[in-house]
TrEMBL record:
It comes from Pseudomonas cavernae. Coiled coil: none annotated. This is GTPase. InterPro entries: CobW-likC_sf, CobW-like_C, CobW/HypB/UreG_nucleotide-bd, P-loop_NTPase, Zinc-reg_GTPase_activator. Gene3D superfamilies: CobW-like, C-terminal domain, P-loop containing nucleotide triphosphate hydrolases. Belongs to the SIMIBI class G3E GTPase family. ZNG1 subfamily.
Length: 324
């Protein structure tokens, strides 16, 4: 009997940003969901002391039916163990939340759900949620890994906003938008937030939704102290040649694939009435045909790249050669 894929939310963020507080809220809230949470051994404080021990993987079922899993080994082992216990009826859950360590790159976690065929069939990556500590963001964002956590995000949650002035929060929001213009920014208060902001994000769905913030232009100019991670948006009102597009993307991934954190495009292809949509993480990407363009609709191609020190002018010149 085929299984419906289990939605997976990846929770990222630097040390002290409030991931564990948010997890406690998720596990204690009256939401009627059966959540499984994978927590690794480097979390700043465990959800429950019973999770800690000598075994590589421990599973604990809570009173409300949620499941906690503490791992001392690799993530895939924990994912398979949860599936085994789910299939045997030993535990029950319909959603999975994975907490990354504060110093962790979310990329390997995301890639696990694309590379392994069985995991790809049983789980579906719904979104990457990154928490940012407003009170210490200037210090944290000096680290490339903290910028990368923001760059990978489908949602950015800012905590401890009550500890900073409104002007400081506004400046931080502009900086976060410059790093990642795809991700909406939301405020989380002591771990509490509307679950609709965390679940069913569909950040990895192949569709024509590019995110609400793409037209925003941060007021803080990029300069010599600009962040390493930034968003590059390419647009064209002319239809694109699909063969030249393929050459452009192949060359881009060959040269800069390891620096492309997240990317997505909704494209108008010459001679084709349908939109072409694609998205990827590092060198892993997928594409498909979407709905047809409307008769009165402006056919504009938009490509969004969130990357680490990307050569902007070189990429813009390459994209300019793709028009039909």
């Amino acid at each position: 009997m085929p299984h419906l894929p289990i939605p997976v939310t990846v929770l990222s963020g630097f040390l002290g940003a409030g991931k564990t507080t948010l997890l406690r809220y998720l596990l204690e809230a009256e939401h009627g969901l059966k959540l499984a949470v994978i927590e690794n051994e480097f979390a700043e404080s465990g959800i429950d002391s019973q999770l800690l021990g000598d075994q590589p993987v421990q599973v604990l079922t809570l009173a409300n039916g949620c499941v906690c899993c503490s791992i001392l080994g690799d993530l895939e082992r924990a994912l398979y163990l949860l599936l085994e216990r789910l299939d045997s009826g030993e535990i029950a859950f319909d959603r999975l939340v994975i907490e990354c360590t504060g110093l962790a790159d979310p990329a390997p976690v995301a890639q696990a759900f694309f590379v392994d065929e069985e995991l790809r069939e049983r789980y579906v990556l719904d979104g990457i949620i990154t928490l940012v500590d407003a009170a210490h963001a200037d210090i944290h964002l000096q680290e490339a890994i903290a910028q990368a956590q923001v760059g990978f995000a489908d949602r950015i949650l800012v905590s401890k906003t009550d500890l900073v002035a409104p002007a400081s929060f506004a400046a931080l929001s502009q900086r976060l938008q410059r790093i990642n213009s795809r991700a909406p920014i939301r405020v989380v208060e002591h771990g509490r937030i509307d679950l609709a902001e965390l679940l069913d994000v569909r950040g990895f769905n192949l569709n024509a939704e590019l995110g609400p913030n793409l037209n925003l232009r941060p007021a803080v100019p990029a300069g010599k102290n600009a962040d390493r991670i930034a968003t590059l948006v390419l647009r064209s009102e002319q239809a694109l040649d699909i063969d030249r597009l393929s050459e452009f993307m192949n060359a881009l991934l060959e040269q800069h694939g390891s620096s492309l954190l997240r990317y997505k495009g909704v494209l108008s292809i010459a001679g084709e009435p349908r939109r072409l949509v694609f998205q990827g993480v590092l060198k892993l990407y997928g594409f498909d045909w979407d709905s047809e363009w409307g008769a009165a609709e402006a056919r504009e191609s938009v490509m969004v790249f969130i990357g680490d020190n990307l050569p902007e002018e070189q990429i813009r010149q390459g994209f300019a050669a793709v028009v039909a």
